[in-house]
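User: I'm new to structure prediction. If I give you an amino acid sequence, what do you actually give back? Let's try with this one:
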Amino acid sequence: MRRSIISLGLAAIVLLIWPATGFAAGGPLPNIGTAGNYAVLGAATVTNTGPSWITGQVGLSPGTSITGFTQESGPGTSGHQDIANGASGQAMIDLNTAYLSAAGATTTANLTGDLGGRSPLVAGTYKYSSSAGLTGTLVLDGGGSTTNLWIFQIGSTLTTASSSRVTLINGAQPCDVFWQVGSSATLGTSTTFVGNILANTSITMTTGATLNGRALAGAVTSSGAVTLDTNRIIQPSGCGYAVPAYVAPPAGNILPATLGVPWELRGSIPWLLVIGVGAGLGATAMGISSRRRRRRSA
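Assistant: Good question. You get back a string of structure tokens that encode the predicted 3D arrangement of the chain. For your 298 residues, that looks like this:
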């Protein structure tokens, strides 16, 4: 009887801990709707130079000029392309809705100065009244949850210095990071960036920059453009979106096939999950042992 009580107690611990590690509330998620089906989405143009590699779809509306890569061969490769059709038109409408939603989210903290070198930022809505810059590394800490949310409200421009990084730890997910940019975003050479960029006008990724997220430009203005140069972009899964279809790399692209690792391996060890799994195994073992003893005594 005593062992049964202990076993039930351990099982209860598993039920209590598991939701805390996987389903913690992260605040209202900006609904990007069908815009989430795209790794790159522009209003006027999408232009590429060099062997860029996009795992995910590319969309454009109302413009008709996607240049510099195809779905099958170089110089760059991407997933399916929607150009000035119903799908891309609806995606632009949904992008506008998401942009306004992110811009209107209740601010957690007002920031000034560079994003790099700060203490890890927990989930929240962070606001820059004008421009924002990133030099070095910005760490986003999920606190053991895979559903926490970050929104960065940037009044004008977002600019990263060369080799800057956004790093996720403790369960933070690329699909839960949003950059609402009032005008243009520029990712510097060899920047490693994460999240959904919702830019009012343009997004420029310079040579060697990578994005585990989405580059969505033209949220309000129809002149929005995305400009790429030898980049790697992976459209993130999660948040209701499936894993994007595989896209073969173009010749000459030496950027990584994957960007990031599973959350269980990022940063600190998720001890709550480890304890929960251990408790579950212990409860199972004790239950089996108790049944064996009862059979022997019968």
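You can read the tokens as a compact description of the fold. Here is one thing that stands out. The chain has two domains: 2-24+268-297, 33-234.
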